[in-house]
UniProtKB/TrEMBL annotation:
InterPro entries: DNA_glycosylase, HhH-GPD_domain, HhH_base_excis_C, OGG_N, Oxidative_DNA_repair_enzyme. Belongs to the type-1 OGG1 family. Keywords: DNA damage, DNA repair, Glycosidase, Hydrolase, Lyase, Multifunctional enzyme. PANTHER family: 8-OXOGUANINE DNA GLYCOSYLASE, N-GLYCOSYLASE_DNA LYASE. The keyword Disulfide bond does not apply. This is DNA-(apurinic or apyrimidinic site) lyase. It comes from Sporothrix curviconia.
Length: 409
């Protein structure tokens, strides 16, 4: 099915400016898969392959044949025949990774302004916010509700396999593009997604797809994008289709809240990673844990966050870190994930390692690498039962945590 399998090209960028091993698996995008030292994903009507050394990012693109391109036209991320004939992958990657921004200078600024960031950041350099397709980000973060990275990745993969156009295969692995709103708006979608294990999220996905197809004007979602942060490959300004939607972070956040399955945290994830609003700070249990442990926020007994709590945490970090507060937050978020926190051991001392395991009395979802091929039982205070499932040649790990009964004050 492949029309063109390009050779490897290189893009000079240091690990301090971009570390794909961290950026692609820290809960921003859920469709990148790693094969040995190579990351692969279907984006913009092509199959992208990436690998990296200390000085360069290496990339190649595998394009589908004309029949597959025609079948891909329903997907928002597909490109025209002109894009297939002309390999614009480098331009897309520069936009996708925001390479126009000097990440080192931002890290220096955040380190000067925040002692906690200065302590954590040296172990987590090169983390950039991805400039993703807004529709893909919206649906994937709807799937993130009460979920972990492994299961979100599994759901994103199922959406592509069952509803996205097939672009081709690399080394025997099939790759589908992300499905369009029209593909997910069909009457049968909700029931089918429930059969595939999406649970209550199936309703939200189907309703949001129908809203964008039937109730909103074409281009409504993209008009919420930050004009200073165009989508990868975008060459012309986005046309306004709703006079009430003046581009701003607050407008984007409030408009996203009108969609089914979108709360404040999901709205901020989409605003930050799908619409280019760098000041958006998604507040989940990990970020709340950081706020309590490191920034003197008072603990709360509730397992859910009020809008006031969410806004207070976001405003605090925006005041501390500035217009790219969401970028700084992602560094501390990554440091707080169990799968990454081991990097701090030794560098920060035993007290730091202990503090990373100390949580507020909220349910903390533990993230595992979606590419893990063996079940591993983590020795911790919680007993964990690990169930290995195989879905479309990708083995994922589901964790079911059981808690001992505790007396609470």
């Amino acid at each position: 099915m492949s029309r063109l399998a390009a050779p490897w090209h290189k893009l000079p960028v240091s690990l301090k400016e971009l570390c794909i091993d961290t950026t692609l698996r820290c809960g921003q995008s859920f469709r990148w898969r790693k094969f040995d030292d190579e990351w692969r994903c279907s984006l913009y009507g092509r199959i992208l392959s990436l690998k990296q050394d200390a000085e360069c990012l290496y990339y190649k693109a595998t394009f589908p044949d004309k029949a597959a391109v025609a079948a891909s036209q329903g997907a928002l991320s597909s490109r025209s025949d002109d894009a297939v004939d002309h390999d614009d992958t480098e331009t897309l990657l520069r936009g996708y990774f925001h390479l126009q921004l000097d990440l080192g200078a931002l890290y220096d600024q955040w380190s000067r302004d925040d002692a906690n960031f200065r302590k954590k950041a040296p172990q987590f350099s090169g983390i950039r916010i991805l400039n993703q397709d807004a529709w893909e980000a919206l649906i994937c973060f709807i799937c993130s509700s009460n979920n972990n990275i492994s299961r979100i990745s599994q759901m994103a993969h199922k959406l592509c396999v069952h509803y996205g156009p097939l672009l081709g295969s690399v080394d025997g692995e099939a790759f589908h593009d992300f499905p369009s709103p029209a593909a997910l708006a069909a009457p049968s979608v909700e029931a089918h997604l429930r059969q595939l294990g999406f649970g209550y999220r199936a309703k939200y996905i189907a309703q949001t797809a129908r809203t964008l197809c039937s109730d909103k004007p074409e281009g409504w979602l993209e008009q919420l994008r930050n004009p200073a942060c165009p989508a990868p490959g975008q060459t012309e300004p986005v046309k306004a289709v709703d006079a009430d939607c003046t581009p701003s972070y607050k407008t984007a956040h409030e408009q996203l809240l009108l969609l089914s399955g979108v709360g404040p945290k999901v709205a901020d994830c989409v605003a930050l990673m799908g619409l280019g609003w760098g000041e958006a700070v998604p507040v989940d249990t990990h970020v709340w844990q950081i706020a309590v442990r490191d920034y003197k926020f008072k603990r709360i007994a509730s397992k859910t966050f009020s809008r006031a709590v969410h806004d207070a945490v976001g405003d605090h970090f925006r005041g501390l870190w500035g217009p790219y507060a969401g970028w700084a937050q992602s560094v501390l978020f990554t440091a707080n994930l169990k799968s990454f926190s081991e990097q701090l051991k030794g560098a920060a001392g035993s007290d730091e390692s202990k503090s990373l395991k100390t949580g507020v009395e909220l349910e903390i979802k533990e993230e595992e690498d979606v590419q893990t091929t063996e079940a591993a039982v983590t020795k911790s205070k919680r007993k964990t039962v690990v169930k290995v499932e195989e879905d479309a040649k990708v083995v994922t790990v589901r964790e079911t945590q059981t808690r001992s009964k505790r007396s609470r004050r």
